[in-house]
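A.,

Following up on our hallway conversation. Structure tokens first:
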């Protein structure tokens, strides 16, 4: 009997240990579903993923950069490219082969390289790009990759049967920064306009620090129901990220 019990315990452990390993969740509550040296994809809700790639900055060193993937009915929309062409190629491949989804749009949230760095790879795959008209202007002026389709204040696209919004609320990290929102799951991509808890002010080279808090206050008022917020860098959170960012740049 003792031998039988030991055999059962051993068999259960062999089954459960792999399950526990694959079900691990990162400190911010997200669940990594893909990881390589250049790219991490984490699942936040049944329909939303965060992609994280790495940008080498002369000032800040190796910086993890976030973006958002929104999915529905075998379609996907991506906010911000990965940091470069190779990591963007990985992201595109993962969405197409692992999710079996068609990417119908990529939306850079401002003109900096951490948002448009991999845009040529999306162009190569004939994936339409959409951005604030000011983003297009600034990307061209600074000799960065330039999105193709422009909008002024707001853009609404449909992924599957669900709506996705990209909206300009005002200046902050840059003069062109927008936020993405997926109301079906109440998930926001704040981009570099929104800071993770405990973050410093970061790169202010193109910032409007006088209006930053006011802009984020408008975001907070527009989406009182938001449950998950993805910042441009660092860990996800809830509405506390908006409050923290407002306080960080308060006059």
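Then the amino acids I'd put at each of the 251 positions:
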């Amino acid at each position: 009997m003792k031998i039988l019990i030991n055999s059962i315990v051993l068999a259960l452990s062999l089954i459960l240990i792999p399950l526990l390993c694959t079900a691990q969740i990162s400190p911010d509550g997200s669940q990594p579903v893909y990881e390589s040296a250049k790219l991490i994809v984490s699942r936040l809700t049944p329909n939303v993923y965060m992609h994280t790639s790495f940008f080498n900055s002369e000032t800040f060193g190796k910086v993890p950069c976030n973006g958002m993937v929104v999915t529905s009915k075998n379609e996907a929309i991506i906010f911000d490219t990965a940091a470069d062409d190779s990591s963007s190629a990985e992201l595109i491949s993962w969405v197409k082969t692992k999710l079996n989804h068609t990417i119908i749009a990529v939306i850079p949230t401002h003109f900096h390289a951490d948002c448009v760095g991999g845009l040529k790879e999306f162009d190569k795959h004939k994936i339409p790009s959409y951005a604030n008209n000011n983003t297009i202007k600034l990307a061209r002026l600074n000799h960065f990759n330039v999105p193709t389709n422009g909008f002024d204040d707001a853009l609404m696209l449909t992924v599957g049967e669900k709506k996705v919004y990209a909206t300009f609320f005002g200046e902050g990290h840059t003069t062109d920064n927008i936020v993405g929102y997926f109301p079906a799951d109440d998930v926001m991509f704040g981009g570099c306009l929104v800071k993770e808890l405990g973050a410093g002010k970061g790169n202010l080279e193109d910032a409007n620090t006088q209006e930053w808090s006011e802009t984020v206050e408008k975001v907070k008022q527009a989406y009182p129901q938001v449950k998950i917020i993805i910042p441009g860098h660092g860990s996800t959170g809830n509405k506390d990220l908006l409050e923290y960012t407002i306080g960080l740049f308060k006059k």
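The two ends are 74 Å apart (CA to CA). Curious whether your intuition agrees with the design.

B.
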